[in-house]
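Q: I'm writing up a methods section and want to include an example of the input and output format. Could you take the sequence below and give the corresponding predicted structure tokens, formatted cleanly so I can copy it straight into the document?
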Amino acid sequence: MVLDSLPLNPGDLDWTPLRELGDLTLFENTSPAEVAERVRDADVVYTNKVRVRADALGAASNLKLVSVLATGYDIIDLDAARQQGVTVCNVPAYGTNSVAQTTIALLLELTHHAGAHDAAIRDGQWQRAGFFSFWNYPLVELADKTLLIVGMGAIGSKVAQIATALGMKVSAAQLPGRTASGQAAYPRVPLQEALPQADVISLHTPLTPETRALINAERLSQMKQTALLLNTARGLLVDEAALAEALRDGRIAGYAADVLSTEPPASDNPLFNAPHCNLTPHLSWASFESRQRLMNASVENLRAFLLGKPQNVVS
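A: Here is the clean output for your methods example:
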């Protein structure tokens, strides 16, 4: 049972390898009210962003495996799954290249404003300026700027690698309560010390109770006025109201994100009216190549489970 098939496969991938492993039912999407009924008789459930909570797990007497069509698995009630004897697995690292590429694209948009300058040309502003060269936003060179990575996992490390090639100086944030790893490719600096030094801060840490609203009013006040903030991880890592106020007051220079606190967002999201804010609709994972890797790995998760050798287990 696939609860939300459309994001993974809008029509350019093939479900046949998964169909060969069992009686496959595909739902393009599933509302919260429909989850319990749809998983009731399923042996295996796939979900990308549809939440599977304790009530649904308790009603699914045949359920043996929940495979998340993503890396993040906070949509599953893991305690309830363990109590029910249901294995939960995910797909790590499938989107590393795609998400890192999006992160850099957002950074380049904040520093060179390619989209805004394209719109200015179409509005006739270059033509009216009368010079061979025209710009109406500050242009920022990234070489020798300091990039602070918050969450130096696979994606954060890939972003660091690309940023290094651009001539940036990279450091990793040491979060409160986290133990530093023994071997680190980049210097680790406590977050409160690193924020005032950073020209760019890029968020790549999972959403946990400890990281929810990690970037709040207090931490925004510790950043340079020229600092740029990037978020391709989870929207709830940021206090959006505090961030919007900081952008309006000029306390930081810009924000670019592929994620928001609620998705799809409410029309009154405070960032919609904030200046120097660029948003994309949670697309960083969704290149064709990335989705194909995700499909392949999801099939292998089930194949391994059927062979009695479950992989990528998070429960």
